[in-house]
Amino acid sequence: MADKREYRMEELARLAGITVRTLRFYRERKLIPPPRREGRIAWYDDHHLARLRTIGALLERGHTLSGIAELAEAFDNGRDVGDLLGLGAPTEETPVRLTPEELADHFAGQATPENLAAAMELGYLGTDGDEIVHISRRLLEVSAALVREGIPLAEVLAAGKLVREHADALAELFADLVLRHATEDDLPRLRPLARSVVEAELSLAMDRRLRKKP
Fold first, then answer.
1. 76 Cβ partners below 8 Å, 6+ apart?
2. Section 81-108 average pLDDT
3. What distance in Å separates the CA atoms of residue 36 and residue 43, rounded to the nearest whole number?
4. Rounded CA gap, 100 and 86, in Å?
């Protein structure tokens, strides 16, 4: 395994395409983590370089330094991806790795610290270094589509929390039903049947809702 690359301040600034003065300003604003100190010398690594490039990309997209600082704090205090995925990735959902600027692009300026905290609390998001991991590509794409339709991300996440509660109850109901007549080993095989029932019932419920007069 290659040794971790480290940089002096001048080299880091050059690689990031900024001035040393700007780098000092970012450090003072706590937009990047503190460097490793060796006497009077400050050493930076690839984590700092990735963060600086992210800051540059977010600035190009119109984000303010104050907003970026709040996002950086949310990322640094977020759930680790290991906690998010537990012992392994979901069996049917595909996790998605995103940079902070890619996440911001998905949600058109609504990737605020408050919304990030709500998504992390729900278990949608985790962090892995300078990357963000969303636990489900399907949920990410649906959430982004709803935001594009004009629904605020905060309300999408609040609805997601309610759906999670109902989904947990449905999963318990189906598992109890199976375990009364089969074994735990049968649950994975019968899982698609539970999903089909829920999808069909939701479709019928939407039909009933749409037939109601305003």
1. 33, 127
2. 74
3. 5
4. 22
Helix segments in the chain, DSSP class H:
9-16, 20-28, 46-60, 65-76, 81-85, 100-106, 113-122, 137-148, 153-179, 187-211
pLDDT at 195: 92
**Interatomic CA distance for residues 107 and 105, integer angstroms:** 6
The pair phi, psi for residue 4, each rounded to 5°, is -65, 130
CA distance linking residue 192 with residue 148, whole number of Å: 30
pLDDT tens-place string over residues 158-188? 999 999 999 999 999 999 999 999 998 999 8
Give helix 187-211 / helix 153-179 axis angle, nearest 10°: 130
Residue 6 · residue 48 · CB < 8 Å: no
Contacts 24+ apart (CB under 8 A), 3-11: 4/45, 4/46, 5/45, 5/46, 6/36, 6/43, 6/44, 6/45, 7/43, 7/44, 7/45, 7/48, 7/49, 8/41, 8/42, 8/43, 8/44, 9/35, 9/42, 9/44
pLDDT of 193 over the 80 cut: yes
CA 152/CA 107 separation, integer angstroms: 9
Quote the tokens at residue 94: 């595909």
